[in-house]
């Protein structure tokens, strides 16, 4: 039970596709769903046939909403057609990237949309079993999904011979128990097999060797929720909503120092400045913006003068950052960026699975360095050491968690270096001093 | 699919390298003698990609790649030296050292530490890590295994060797991130085979040995490669000696067919050698009680009493019981002593497997090329195991079998009266029978018919090729014949292994410690054989078989044997003989390492040297001959060889052997099947023998039986091993862990 | 003793997977929901049912941050201090709870009613600062709201 008002404040600038049904009374029930285009995409998919579905997905330009932004149709097409092994669809509902809370409303207000997307994916690649891997903290969402899944079985949208199509598909939820790393696709697969959430060596990729050694596609909740709409309204329509190679809309989670925090569905490529000022209503207390985390804490941070950027994968990549998971965090002028860096690193050190050396030892080292630095024990060499250590992690770890820890740190040290040096010279955090002063 | 080329060619540091398709880059580099450092990579075990030490740069690939997980491809251009790679390695080592205590001066692994070596070669001079290191107290996993978390680099080798190699799975990983640590399977403690493989495979000093820790520096010890003296598998082991005492045994150089493997007995069970309970002065019984004596006196008494008995009762009144652990040279001389000096064929030993009948059966079938070796087992595609419990009685054999199953899905078929671990965990097929019915199964396999389980076993084996047939003491006498006859009818080259308990059980039989067989399984009844040896020994040999061990003991009871010489054997215990009977003998002389149930009744006790204190050869249960080397000396003791020579001399036969090697030369020239190459023995090779002969049939069934030792026992000597007795598992009921 | 209800739930869950061990983490969490923590008995029982060695279950427990082997308070206050919450006073909320209950991170009140835990992002960033009490979310927190909540919980806790 998230409080609908605080999440769905709404904005005239929104383009509602996957959030269109959120406001409806009783929106989780299958009847409401069916009354509003529910399972129409699936029915159409059955008429099109698997290959057509995959092609439609490809040309729609839908890119993974979990963070990596890989073309979804393309990923589906990697699943071998000729194989005697069973295939699987795994929905990544581990939503653990700091500042990200978009999959939550998708499951809370419109669970059948997700189920429909999963069945379409299963039909496209020829899978007959799906799992929704949902983070343990989201227990109430698991209950909502379990109820929806039961309804879908009862009405013949899951199980044997779905809607007379001859296609069988089984689906169930699977709870995690507290581990950010289990959102990483291969760690998720190990976790789903009852093992510790350690990542796997790639290649082979999950599309070929996934869960139980069988071909598996793993997609984020939001990604899958888009599928029914793409099939129903067509790739062209979907692509048209966004920018080139960045089809559709995206749920952005505005949080931090912003007047109207919430989840907003905006077209891909929506300008960040307008997102902050018009959608989010600006920075509280008329304060100045200092920095923005554009897509969850794994992304390099932007300075206030970098916000004239279109919020899509390629535009952000061009300025050295990432669209990531859609978690947009506004940080105002009175915030200590060393403390931000420290808190971010505390998270990665806590969540590092510990399998590979650079991530395990590097994040622990950086956390302790930043603790000391922010606590007043900073040494002149610290900013450079922090940078070097981050670069020594970058690109050398088994899974991208290491990079996710290094990238924001590098950007903060580089872009806000003076604050680090001030900590060193003062032997204290200037901002906490101010706080004390007033 | 298009046919894949068998090899690929790539360039590493400018050198073109051609390797088989599917080779890992790290191995390809090795072949080009380019070293790519690594910690978590360990050949033969699953890939981890954890330590990131093996990073290399590959053209057309965005970032550094790990050589241990990269499969080579044609035209790949690899660089293992460029600045990016060098810095990458430096970085990994700096990371590893952030929390690694630099206590190398007091660390067991100092000097043998892979981290130390890597830092020396690839490391950065100084670190920028200024935070304080997190200390954690060392944990005692068992009396033999200790764990030091801060030293652990989490390469997960211990986990894999225990899981994939040993199939024990005693280790796990606890916690997460920088708090991760290796955890044992029973709360704070290990419950396992205590093989100690994890200690040797640990690249740093995180896992240390309860018997070796803090004792010495590696470079202060002398190393001697020799053969383990416990079970019949014949593992190569390196004894490390300092101040004339063994401190450690391991096989770090992976020499011998056991590679990195040693079981708990091989790695820790040598400590009986150092036991203060060792006999070091001869004992002679005077008016009822044994008293210390000089060697001269002890030998005098023995010889004079022997002479007396021979004069009054003739050679029929003397007999010799030999050992399962003494060297081939000693066994050879012992039977020569019996046959040519005491003029009796009444020489035998506790037979723990029926080697004779295997030799006879293969010879009759003209198939003496069908003895399998230890190496063969790990390469076998199909294995039939009848009886025995290798996990306990033949740890290396069990390891080889598991390796065959793991590495290439070999089909293991088990016939056993118990649910042994191999049957439950590795076997493709397990036919469980009542104790004693193993022979019935063989009869049925050969005759056709039998219960469903047997006919399906027959069918399956009929579909395999080149099966290796391994059998324990349950199969002896005619059953061995049936088994061989039927086995040879299977497709491909069926090969055989008979299992015997101890380090030289096979050698005892080969060297003719048998009443009816001369060395090389030639029957004493054979004119030709007798003539040949008479020539070599300059003395004739009686043509009738002597008394076998059961008969010898009956004769002792019946008072027909008056003098008994026992070498490295404990008949009172092994055969449940009432010791008092032995008291009645005119002479009971026993050469032993320790006071035993048998020495208790001896008139003369001769303190013998152990395997570590003499040179020679032993033959493992597969018939592979290997050299044992003198590692140290034990004041007061003499080798059985010296003792036998002395007795012969005192009895008027001054044999001209200067050393064990002279005896070996004679064996090589005159014992059929032992014409092995001396040099290969000396460089530590295991030389297979393929005896052919017509030894007499097994006289009686109860002559062959195994002692059924467990992983933690080894006949009499293990009673004097602190290590073996100190592990919990040894106290638990047989087979509990499995 | 695990309840029959729990055991039958075990069976249902295990049946969902081609590989029994897949059920380990869900089973552990469900067992913890019932017992309040993961007992040795639960470990043995789960290992037996999914056919793994107990150590493999123990490995999982220490990996997943929601699983614990010691009993904790009836109400586990899990306060998020990650970026979005931190910017809006998450740490103050944590301190407030700590003072109010007189316990620190991963500690439990003597009456066994409350435990306190500083946790990572709960996915409640738009309702920051936020916390979870057991599985229930409480968002847009202020010290006053926290006080009221704690009072309610005390009342309920004593009631039962
Ligand atoms: C450390 C780490 C954590 C991740 N966490 C999540 C997550 O919580 N949810 C998610 O959907 N993807 C997460 N991802 C991305 C997944 O690995 C994967 O790319 C994604 O689920 C693919 O689905 P998509 O193509 O639909 O985005 C994470 C990746 C990393 C490296
Ligand atoms: S297996 Fe046998 S030979 Fe090898 S170490 Fe163990 S006891 Fe010694
Ligand atoms: S050896 Fe390659 S990662 Fe460890």
Helices and strands in order, then pairings?
The complex is a heterotrimer of chains A (438), B (738) and C (160).
Chain A: H1 4-7, H2 30-35, H3 40-48, H4 50-60, H5 72-77, E1 88-93, H6 103-109, H7 111-125, E2 129-134, H8 139-154, E3 170-175, H9 185-192, E4 216-220, H10 221-233, H11 235-241, E5 249-256, E6 262-267, E7 270-271, H12 272-279, E8 289-293, E9 302-303, E10 310-311, H13 313-318, E11 327-332, H14 337-351, H15 357-377, H16 382-393, H17 401-415, H18 417-426, H19 430-437
Parallel strand pairs in A: 1-2, 1-4, 2-3, 5-11
Antiparallel strand pairs in A: 5-6, 7-10, 8-9, 8-11
Helix pairs in contact in A: 3-7, 3-10, 4-7, 4-11, 6-7, 7-10, 10-11, 14-15, 14-17, 15-16, 15-17, 15-18, 16-17
Chain B: E1 7-12, E2 15-20, H1 25-31, E3 55-58, E4 65-66, E5 77-79, H2 83-98, H3 114-122, E6 139-140, E7 145-147, H4 157-165, E8 171-174, E9 181-184, H5 197-201, E10 207-209, E11 222-227, E12 236-242, E13 245-250, H6 264-268, E14 283-286, E15 289-292, H7 295-313, E16 318-321, H8 328-341, E17 347-348, H9 355-364, H10 374-379, E18 382-386, H11 390-393, H12 395-408, E19 411-416, H13 421-425, E20 429-432, H14 438-447, H15 452-463, E21 468-471, H16 478-488, E22 495-498, H17 505-510, E23 517-518, E24 522-523, H18 527-537, H19 549-558, E25 563-567, H20 571-574, H21 579-583, E26 587-592, E27 604-607, E28 616-619, E29 624-628, H22 640-650, H23 660-670, H24 678-682, E30 687-688, H25 722-726, H26 728-731
Parallel strand pairs in B: 1-5, 16-17, 16-25, 18-19, 18-21, 19-20, 21-22, 25-26, 26-27
Antiparallel strand pairs in B: 1-2, 3-4, 3-5, 6-7, 7-10, 8-9, 11-12, 12-13, 14-15, 14-27, 23-24, 28-29, 29-30
Chain C: H1 4-14, H2 24-35, H3 40-50, H4 54-63, E1 75-80, H5 83-87, H6 90-101, E2 107-108, E3 114-119, E4 131-133, E5 136-138, H7 143-159
Parallel strand pairs in C: 1-3
Antiparallel strand pairs in C: 1-4, 2-3, 4-5
Bound molecules: flavin mononucleotide (FMN), iron/sulfur cluster and FE2/S2 (inorganic) cluster (FES).
Flavin mononucleotide binds next to strand 4 and helix 17 of chain A.
């Amino acid at each position: 039970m998230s409080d609908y008002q605080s999440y769905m404040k709404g904005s005239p600038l929104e383009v509602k596709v996957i959030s269109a049904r959120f406001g409806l009374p009783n929106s989780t029930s299958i009847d409401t769903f069916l009354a509003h285009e529910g399972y129409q995409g699936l029915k159409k998919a059955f008429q099109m046939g698997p290959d057509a579905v995959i092609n439609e997905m490809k040309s729609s330009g839908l890119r993974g909403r979990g963070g990596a932004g890989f073309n979804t149709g393309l990923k589906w097409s990697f699943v071998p057609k000729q194989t005697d092994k069973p295939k699987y669809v795994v929905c990544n509902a581990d939503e653990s990237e700091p500042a990200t809370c978009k999959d939550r409303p998708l499951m809370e207000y419109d669970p059948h949309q997700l189920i429909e997307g999963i069945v379409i994916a299963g039909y496209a690649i020829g899978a007959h079993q799906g799992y929704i891997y949902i983070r343990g903290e989201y227990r109430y969402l698991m209950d909502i999904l379990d109820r929806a899944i039961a309804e879908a079985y009862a009405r013949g949208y899951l199980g044997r011979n779905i809607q007379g199509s001859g296609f069988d598909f089984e689906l169930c939820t699977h709870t995690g128990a507290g581990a950010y790393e289990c959102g990483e696709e291969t760690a998720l697969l190990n976790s789903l097999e009852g093992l510790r959430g350690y990542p796997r060596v790639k290649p082979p990729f999950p599309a070929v060797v996934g869960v139980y050694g069988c071909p598996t596609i793993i997609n984020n909740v939001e990604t899958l929720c888009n599928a029914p709409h793409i099939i129903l309204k067509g790739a062209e329509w979907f692509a048209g909503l966004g920018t080139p190679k960045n089809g559709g809309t995206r749920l952005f989670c505005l949080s931090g120092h912003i007047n109207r925090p919430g989840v907003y569905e905006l077209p891909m490529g929506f300008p960040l400045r307008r997102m902050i000022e018009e959608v989010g209503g600006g920075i509280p207390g008329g304060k100045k913006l200092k920095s923005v985390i554009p897509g969850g804490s794994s992304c390099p941070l932007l300075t206030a003068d970098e916000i004239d950027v279109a919020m899509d994968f390629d535009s952000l990549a061009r300025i050295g950052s990432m669209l990531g998971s859609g978690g947009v965090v506004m940080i105002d002028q009175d915030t200590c960026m060393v403390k931000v860096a420290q808190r971010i690193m505390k998270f990665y050190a806590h969540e590092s699975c510990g399998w590979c050396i650079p991530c395990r030892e590097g994040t622990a080292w950086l956390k302790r360095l930043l603790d000391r630095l922010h606590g007043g024990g900073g040494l002149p060499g610290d900013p450079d050491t922090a940078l070097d250590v981050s670069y020594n992690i970058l690109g050398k770890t088994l899974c991208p968690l290491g990079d996710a820890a290094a990238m924001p740190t590098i950007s903060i040290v580089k872009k806000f270096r003076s604050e680090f040096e001030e900590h060193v010279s003062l032997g204290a955090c200037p901002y906490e001093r101010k706080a004390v002063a007033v | 699919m298009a046919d894949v080329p068998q090899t690929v060619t790539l360039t590493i540091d400018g050198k073109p390298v051609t390797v088989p398709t599917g080779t890992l880059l790290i191995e390809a580099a090795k072949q080009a003698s380019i070293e790519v450092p690594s910690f978590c990579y360990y050949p033969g075990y699953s890939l981890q990609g954890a330590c990131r030490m093996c990073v290399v740069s590959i053209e057309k690939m965005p970032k550094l790649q790990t050589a241990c997980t990269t499969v080579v491809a044609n035209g790949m251009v690899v660089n293992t030296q460029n600045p990016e790679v060098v810095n990458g390695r430096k970085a990994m080592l700096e990371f590893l050292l952030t929390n690694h205590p630099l206590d190398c001066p007091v660390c067991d692994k100092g000097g043998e530490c892979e981290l130390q070596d890597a830092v020396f070669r690839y490391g950065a001079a100084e670190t920028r890590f200024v935070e304080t290191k997190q200390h954690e107290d060392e944990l005692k996993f068992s009396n033999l295994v200790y764990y030091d978390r801060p030293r652990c680099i989490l390469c997960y080798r211990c986990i894999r060797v225990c899981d994939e190699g040993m199939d024990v799975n005693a280790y796990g990983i606890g916690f997460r991130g920088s708090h991760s640590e290796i955890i044992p399977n029973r709360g704070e403690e290990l419950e396992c085979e205590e093989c100690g493989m994890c200690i040797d495979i640990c690249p740093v000093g995180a896992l240390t040995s309860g018997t070796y820790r803090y004792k010495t520096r590696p470079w202060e010890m002398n190393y001697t490669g020799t053969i383990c003296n416990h079970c019949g598998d014949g593992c190569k082991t390196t004894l490390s000696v300092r101040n004339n005492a063994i401190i450690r045994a391991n096989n770090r150089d992976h020499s011998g067919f056991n590679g990195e493997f040693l079981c708990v007995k091989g790695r820790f069970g040598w400590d009986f050698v150092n036991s203060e309970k060792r006999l070091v002065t001869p004992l002679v019984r005077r008016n009822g009680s044994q008293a210390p004596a000089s060697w001269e006196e002890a030998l005098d008494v023995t010889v004079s009493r022997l002479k007396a008995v021979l004069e009054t009762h003739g050679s029929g009144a003397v007999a010799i019981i030999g050992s399962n652990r003494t060297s081939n040279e000693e066994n050879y001389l012992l039977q020569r002593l019996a046959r040519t000096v005491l003029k009796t064929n009444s020489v035998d030993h506790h037979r723990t497997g029926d080697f004779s009948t295997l030799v006879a059966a293969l010879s009759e079938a003209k198939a003496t090329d069908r003895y399998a070796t230890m190496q063969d087992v790990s390469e076998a595609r199909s294995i039939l195991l009848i009886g025995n419990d290798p996990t306990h009685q033949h740890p290396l054999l069990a390891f080889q079998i598991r390796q065959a199953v793991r590495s290439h899905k070999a089909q293991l078929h088990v016939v056993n009266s118990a649910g042994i671990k191999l049957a439950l965990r590795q076997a493709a097929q397990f036919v469980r029978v009542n104790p004693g019915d193993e022979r019935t199964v063989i009869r049925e396999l050969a005759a056709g018919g039998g219960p469903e389980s047997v006919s399906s076993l027959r069918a399956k084996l009929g579909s395999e090729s080149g099966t290796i047939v391994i059998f324990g003491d349950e199969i002896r006498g005619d059953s061995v014949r049936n088994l061989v006859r039927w086995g040879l009818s299977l497709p491909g080259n069926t090969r055989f292994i008979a299992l015997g308990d101890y380090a030289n059980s096979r050698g005892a039989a080969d060297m003719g410690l048998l009443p009816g067989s001369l060395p090389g399984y030639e029957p004493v009844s054979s004119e030709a054989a007798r003539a040949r040896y008479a020539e070599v020994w300059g003395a004739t040999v009686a043509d009738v078989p002597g008394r076998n061990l059961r008969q010898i003991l009956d004769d002792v009871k019946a008072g027909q044997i008056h003098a008994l010489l026992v070498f490295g054997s404990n008949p009172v215990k092994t055969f449940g003989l009432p010791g008092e009977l032995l008291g009645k003998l005119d002479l009971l002389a026993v050469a032993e390492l320790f006071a035993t149930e048998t020495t208790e009744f001896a008139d003369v006790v001769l303190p013998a040297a152990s395997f570590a204190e003499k040179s020679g050869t032993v033959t493992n249960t597969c018939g592979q001959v290997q050299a044992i080397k003198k590692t140290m000396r034990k004041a007061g003791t003499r080798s059985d060889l010296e003792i036998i020579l002395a007795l012969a001399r005192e009895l008027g036969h001054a044999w001209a052997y200067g050393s064990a090697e002279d005896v070996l030369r004679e064996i090589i020239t005159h014992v059929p099947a032992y014409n092995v190459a001396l040099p290969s023995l000396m460089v530590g090779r295991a030389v297979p023998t393929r005896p052919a002969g017509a030894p007499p049939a097994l006289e009686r069934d109860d002559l062959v039986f195994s002692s059924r030792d467990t992983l933690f026992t080894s006949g009499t000597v293990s009673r004097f091993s602190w290590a073996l007795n100190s592990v919990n598992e040894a106290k638990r009921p047989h087979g509990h862990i499995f | 003793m695990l309840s029959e209800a729990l055991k039958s739930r075990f069976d249902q869950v295990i049946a969902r997977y081609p590989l029994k061990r897949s059920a380990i983490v869900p089973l552990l969490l469900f067992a913890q929901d019932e017992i309040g923590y993961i007992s040795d008995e639960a470990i043995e029982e789960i290992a037996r049912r999914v056919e793994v060695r107990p150590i493999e279950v123990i490995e999982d427990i220490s990996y997943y941050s929601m699983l614990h082997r010691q009993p904790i308070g009836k109400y586990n206050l899990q306060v998020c201090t990650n970026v979005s919450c931190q910017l809006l006073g998450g740490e103050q909320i944590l301190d407030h709870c700590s003072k109010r209950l007189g316990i620190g991170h991963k500690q439990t009140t003597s009456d066994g009613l409350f435990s306190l835990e500083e946790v990572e992002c709960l996915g409640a960033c738009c309702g920051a600062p936020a916390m979870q009490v057991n599985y229930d979310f409480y968002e847009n927190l202020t010290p006053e709201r926290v006080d009221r909540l704690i009072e309610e919980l005390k009342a309920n806790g004593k009631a039962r």
